[in-house]
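Section handout, structural biology tutorial.
Before the tutorial, make sure you can parse a SMILES string by hand: atoms, branches in parentheses, ring closures as digits. In the record below the ligand is fe (ii) ion, and the chain has 472 residues. In the tutorial you will relate the predicted C-alpha cells back to the input. Do not try to memorize them.
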Amino acid sequence: MGFKLYSFAGFSFYLFVGLTLHLQVLEFCSAGTTSSYVRKYNYDIDMPLDSDVFRVPPGYNAPQQVHITQGDSEGRGVIVSWITADEPGSNIVLYWPENSKHIFRADGIVLTYKYYNYTSGFIHHCTVEDLEYDTKYNYEVGIGNTTRQFWFVTPPKVGPDVPYTFGLIGDLGQTFDSNTTVAHYQLNPAKGQTVLYVGDLSYADDYPYHNNIRWDTWGRFTERSAAYQPWIWTAGNHEIDFSPNIGEPKPFKPYTHRYFVPYRPSDSTSPLWYSIKRASAHIIVMSSYSGYGKYTPQYKWFTSELSRVNRNETPWLIVLMHCPMYNSYETHYMEGETMRVMYEKWLVEYKVDVVFAGHVHSYERSERVSNIRYNIVNKRCTPTKDESAPVYITIGDGGNLEGLATKMTEPQPEYSAYREASFGHGIFDVKNRTHAHFSWHRNQDGVAIEADSVWLHNRYWKTMAEPSIAVS
Ligand SMILES: [Fe+2]
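Predicted structure of the complex:
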C-alpha cells in the first residue's frame, strides 16, 4: 500500500514537473521572434536626379506626377491629381469605362505654392464621381498633343464579404531601395489593389531648405503605381515641413497642396485625419503630428467616427497612423506613448482589427495586447493579452535615405510577435467578414515569398460568435 502510495505520489511529482516544463516552453514560444535574417549592407542614398524613374514625360507641359486616391466615402469617386510644369493647361479629366465609347468629363482645380525659393508647378486636382463599382476605367489628362492616358479599377460595392487586397507601404523615400520596394510590390502575385500608405513620402525635408524638387521627383517616381491604383495617404513627420527660420511657418504645406484626400465626406475638418470605406473595410487615417489631446478637433472627430462604423457593412476596421503605439526598436522608442495613452482604450473598445504605422524603418508585428488597465498607481504597466485589441504592425520599411532601424530593445518584449530590420512591403488580404491574411515581403526575397505572415480573425465577428465563413 505504502509502495503504491509512493508510486502515485511519484507519478504526481513527475506529472507536475512535466507540466511545468511544458508551460515554460509555451511561454518561451510566445515571447516572439527576432528574425535571424541578416540583410546585406547597402548604403541608402537617393537615386540621382537624372535617374530614369524621375524622367519628365515628353511633350510641352505634359502632365506629370499623376496619382489617384479615393474621392468619396464609398469608392465611387476618385481624385485624380497631376502637375504641369510650364503653364496651367487643362483642368479636365476625361474618363470612360473600358470597352465603352461614351466619354465623361470632370472639371478640377489648379493651384500652386511657394516654399522658400521654390515655386511649384501647376498642381491639378479633379474629383471624378458617380463611377460604377468594380469597373475598369481609362482616363486622360493633358491637352492638345501632350495628353496622357492611364486606368484604374473601382472597388466592389461596400459590403461585409467583399474580398479586397490592400498593399502596405511606409516611409518610402526615393533611394534605390525605395525603387526595389515599389517594384516588389507591383510584382507581388498577391496583386494589391490599393495602397495604404502610412506616411513619410519624399524626404525632401532632409535636403537643405527642404528642396521641394525632391517632392517632384518623388511624384514622378511613384506615378507608375499611384496613377493606376489609389494610394490612401497618411501624413508623417516628413510632411510637416515646418521651418520658420526660412520663412515657412505653416505646417504640412507641400503635402496638403500636392496630396488631396476625401476628408469632407467623413465630416472631418482637416485633410490630416479622415476615413473611407472600401470594399469590406472601414479605414481611419489619423495624424500623429496634429493636436490629438482631449477636446482637440482630431479627438472629437475620431471618437465620433468610431460610433459611425457599421461592422455589419464593413467588418474590417483598420487604423492608419504614422508613429507606432507599440515599437520595440530603439529608434523612436516611446514616441507613440502619448497617443497610446489617449487612444488605446478606444481601439480596444471598438475592436479595431489592425493598426498600421510607419516611422520606424523596419518591420514589426505585435500580438493582440493592450495596456489600458494601467492607471499610474496600480503597477499594471505591462501589456497583456487582450482578444479585443488590435494587432499593431509597423511597416516603415519602404527604404528611404535615412536607412534601416537596426537597434532593438532587448530582450524582445512578449507583446512583440515578430521583428526584423529589412526593407519591404505588406499585403493585407481580406477574404471575407471573418478572415484576412497579412503577409510581409522583404525586398531581398522572390516576390511571392512571405517573410512573415499571420491570419487575422475579425474582432467584431469573432466576438459576435457568428459562424465562421469558409476561407477561400
Ligand atoms: Fe517618420
